[in-house]
Amino acid sequence: MARKYNWKTGCDVEATLSVIGGRWKAILVCHLLNGRKRFGELRRLTPNATERMITLQLRELEADGVVARHVYAEVPPRVEYELTAFGRSLEPILLVMQSWGRDFKARKLAEEVQQKQ
Phi first, then psi: what are they for 77, rounded to 5°? Predict the structure, then answer.
């Protein structure tokens, strides 16, 4: 996929976000941390994302070398996705993001409870 990012002079954080910065990309990668998944499984795990968006995000992740796509010659065709070794290198980043999100949600819920009292 074409990106408007200057690989020679751009910020390193911007480079990371260009790979995992889509709304569903980090979520899809998190689901794939647990192992190979079929497209239908990924669709069920991300119910708020459309099928088209999941497909587009997976294609971008595949183009960036984060996800590998396996197509099996069966009827009906079976397609599975898994993280590449390069994609697995995102695990520490995503785990820290997950932890931060958990803390943020707890903080917001505590604020709501406090405001109701």
Answer: -60, 140
Domain ranges for the chain:
12-116
For the domain made up of 12-116, the CATH class stated in words is mainly alpha
Is it the case that residue 103 has pLDDT exceeding 50?
Answer: yes
Q: 0.70 exceeded by the pTM?
A: yes
Kindly give the pairing relationship between strand 37-38 and strand 67-72.
unpaired
Pick the closest to residue 58 from 48, 44, 43, 47 (CA basis).
43
The residues, any chain, with a CB within 8 Å of residue 95's CB and separated by 6 or more, are none
Q: Convert the pLDDT of each residue in 29-58 to its tens digit.
A: 999 999 999 999 999 999 999 999 999 999
Separation in Å, CA 22 to CA 4, 66, 77, 92: 14, 13, 27, 18
**pLDDT value of residue 2:** 45
The radius of gyration of the chain's CA atoms, rounded to the nearest angstrom, is: 17
Q: Residue with structure tokens 């569903």?
A: 24
